[in-house]
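Let us practice reading a record.
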Amino acid sequence: MLQTSKLKTDKGDVAIVVNEDGASPYVVVCEHAGLEIPSALGDLGMSEKGLRSHVAWDPGAAEVAELVAYGLGGTLVKQRYSRLVYDCNRPPTSADAMREVSEDTQIPGNCNLSLEEMQWRIKNIYEDFHACVSQQLDRRDEPILVTIHSFTPVYMGVQRRVDVGILHDEDSRLADAVLSVADFGEGIRVERNEPYGPEDGVTHTLKLHSEHRQILNVMIEIKSNLIADETSQARYAHQLIVAIKSAVNVIKVDRQRQAKGE
């Protein structure tokens, strides 16, 4: 059995902060950015191909998230370690936080984990990551939270029809506004709460950081083959920047009208 005393986040801090001096309200988060695994966990019993597949991270998401953070004048917090170690968009109570199987891929290193092993991952991956997100949000007066993900075009043998998902939990203010203004080009199918939704447990980061702060928040999902190179990443990042800025302006105008009793 692996001794947790030997576990270290020895590839670097779990949370990588980009453009920390960004002064705008925006905090961009990418929970599935990284591929690193603490040395003590080895390869989790998986092949190199499996460790670099979509079950381990969200391809292209970190690059888009960084461009969006800079374009919005905000700060990016991205996860260094593979979501196979801990999925930071899941609470410790979720079976999906440390999956034994992802899609049809077995993850041997996550099977039969002891309570001590799970608690180490929770403390040193999940809690440290979200503490950093909280720190970035708390240093802003009226923060706006944007999380960015990518999804595989084919899941369990089924082709996904949606191209871009705009996701939200109970607070749909920013998602509603983004959906009303977003333009990703001809032929790009944009849907609300697709290919996942709150019922799938994917809005954890939004809820964790937004509910008690009552701040604007939205989660973006982009089909990974659409952001597979620098050119496409730059294009989608630009479209997201324009959409998010426009959406926030729509909300501000609505607030002003309501304040005037219009």
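A brief commentary: Residues 230-259 form the longest helix (30 residues).
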